[in-house]
Amino acid sequence: MHPSHFTSSPPAPAEKSGARTQRAFLPPLFAVTTLLFCLLATFGLWYNARASADRATALEFESQVREISNQIGQRMGTYEQILRGARGFLNSMPRAGREQFHVYVDNLDLGRHFPGIQAIGVAEVVAPGGLEAHNEAIRAEGFPSYRLWPIMPRERYTAITRIEPFNRMNQRAFGFDMFSEAVRRTAMEQARDSGAPALSGKVILVQEDPNSSQPGVLMYLPLYRGGGVPASLEQRREALLGWVYAPFRINDFLAGLGGERSGDLAISLYDGDVVQEESCLYGCGAQAQPHVLSAVRHLVIADRPWTLDMRSTPAFEARMRSDTPWLIGGGGLVTSLLLSALVWALSSGRGRAVALATRMTQALRASNERIAAEQQRIRVILENSHDAFVAVDAEGKVTDWNLQAERTFGWSAAEAIGRRLDDLIIPADQRTVFQAGFAGVPAQAAEPVSKRRIELTAQDRTGRQVPVEMGIAVLHGESGDLANAFIRDLSELRETERREAQRQQALEEARARLQSAQRMEAVGKLTGGVAHDFNNVLQIISGNIQLLMHGVGEAHREKRLASMMEAVERGASLSSRLLAFARRQPLQPRAVNLRRLLADMDELLQRAVGAEIAVETVQSARVWNAMVDPSQLENVILNLAINARDAMPEGQGCITIEAGNVELDDDYVRSLPDVSPGQYVMLAVSDTGSGMPREVLEHAFEPFFTTKPEGQGTGLGLSMAYGFVKQSGGHIRLYSEVGHGTTVRLYLPRAFEREEALPRPPADDAIAGGSESILVVEDDPHVQATVVATLRELGYQVLQAHDGASALAMLQAGTRVDLIFTDVVMPGPVRSTEMVSEARKLLPEAGVLFTSGYTQNAIVHAGRLDPGVHLLSKPYRREQLARKVREVLDARPARIPRRDQVRTS
């Protein structure tokens, strides 16, 4: 072989290897180049979108800053016009009284249309020499405790003599001399000298509560004699009558600025041209908050500079934040990666196809395993189901039969599978219903699965009838319809329905008895008004019977008198119950623990509403004590529970009784003039009944108003609850929604004392008399005669008077007595309470004991017996009279010794 053959061939393999290396290097190079180019284009687009979003944010911020500044200026301009209108009203009606001024301001409806303006008032100029005359003049207008304050010597005083609305908060400023404070005085003098409106610097309004105050300012407009504005400074000072002014609470004034976007800006407002902490009116801590944008604007309000510092909030920045730059960046990045991957993929080979086939094979195997596991799971569910499961093929033969089907019908799976279902479990008289149910399913819809539910009577292997509910699902396929059926045994349900019908019948009978009781309660409402005369008659009969009982000696007469006395006591008990029902007896409030009271009432409430209605009690961990009459509160809770029961006509539902602590603040009670702010114990009774529409809610508290059918309620339940809560110094609210139920909430005043055990009746010990002198004041001569005779029998020295005037005349003539025993309700010019008041001035050491069958409002106010008052309700027994008289006599500071306590030497 020639040597040249070996020298010319070796370079070929090296060239092929280099070409393969070059071809392998080119796809990644193309992919990287494509990626870099796309990333560069993406960065350019992202940068432009980001700059555009920042410009839009700055423009929106500047727009809101300008809008807030304009709104503040417009509001203050509007309020300046309100003051000018008030000055025009006063100038045009110089004799306008308080009522006309009240009507004028009330028509402005400040609270609704002018946020931040606390009131419109008038401050009058008072010369030092006319201070007392000024005070007397205002007192003569119906303000007996009025005085100008503070009093400190100076050349001229001013006094706030009119301020509207004249609510509790504004009454704190009544009579205040604003000249006594330097900031207010500076603004008032500026307005006086210029004749134009003047705005004060930062102050704390005297109306503010020290615990929750906020900064404020005042705007003044001078009032001159003659109505106009004098030309010269000296004339303006000489003609000054006072100022019409308006106080502003800055927090309320700035409320709502910006409308729906009020949370976009953090606003700080400063008095003057300098931003400093001591001149901050609003938003004093906003500068410390992180922000992106800020702006400062200077305003001039009524010739006084304000500085407005506004900063963007996180809410504004979040709202203005644009996702477009990030979408562009993210989309560009993804696109760059996809393009570079596509370039790389086009140069790829066979390896990825092989890997893909392997993954698909593994996925198919995993799918088959999941299907097998799912079939096993379904089999476990069917075998453990509480319902019988049966599968039927197109010919009606059983193909599946679970364990519950074996238990229900007695056939094993081996016996049932392959037989027709209707031959196994359907009686002959029910097969038409069964076949119609199966035949009707395919015709119902063209969906792949059709469903139907039927009820029929099946039979088990022994022939026992079994009521069942059958849920049928038919799968439509090319080879025919396959049916699956879940069969539920209804035997227990039918038995439960039978027992429920019996309970409903018993409940209806109980309701009929309750309606009769409610009608009797209505009679008590109508007859309560005659209790005073009725009790006087009972007292006459009772007193004379007791006098006779102490003077007879024959057993048969004593027995008859005792029978008569028993009848009188029954009448007295009836009168007392009627008065209590009609809310004419004094309440006896005490500290009551609602947790204990509700626990004691649990059994009573459950009996009242019936076993079918659940009564649930929800209480806070620590419920305050309430200052109420416990027996009356129990009656109210019982009535509300019965009303809730009647609101659930199906006889089923839930009554929830909730107790907790609440505090009603000034904002809550502002629209409720008869409610005072403070701490209350909230008691709520809720039901899941039918609820009440709005037209029924409007009349729900009216007496005798009811939506129940005739004979099923008196309409007194809610009106009784309303009267009790109001007498107790509380508040009641009613919430209801048709179809969702009703909630009645009682707000009872909090008691700071501990609950004490209810007092036990005193022991029936021996009757004690005495030798003291007693003045009996009674207009009914028959009652007077029995009382005088009884007291004399007890050993007392008794004087008598037929009315308050004659009793007072006896005492003024020098008659000395140890006890005044007087009726509450008497005719004549001198009322019993007036007579007692004068008698205590003459005889401060004498005791006083009232008696009455009906106290009205003489010694009972807000349903409660006045403090320190002793009352013996008619009719009373001889023992009760003796015990109460002895109790009052012994309670005197320096009592006269009783006759049986005096020792002789």
Automatic annotation (TrEMBL):
One of its GO terms (biological process) is regulation of DNA-templated transcription. The modification 4-aspartylphosphate is found at D823. This is histidine kinase. Residues 487-520 form a coiled coil. It comes from Noviherbaspirillum humi. It holds the Pfam family PAS. Keywords: ATP-binding, Coiled coil, Kinase, Membrane, Nucleotide-binding, Phosphoprotein, Transferase, Transmembrane, Transmembrane helix, Two-component regulatory system. SUPFAM superfamilies: ATPase domain of HSP90 chaperone/DNA topoisomerase II/histidine kinase (SSF55874), CheY-like (SSF52172), Homodimeric domain of signal transducing histidine kinase (SSF47384), PYP-like sensor domain (PAS domain) (SSF55785). Residues 529-752 form the Histidine kinase domain. Gene3D superfamilies: 1.10.287.130, 3.40.50.2300, CHASE domain (3.30.450.350), Histidine kinase-like ATPase, C-terminal domain (3.30.565.10), PAS domain (3.30.450.20). Its main location: membrane. GO terms for cellular component: membrane.
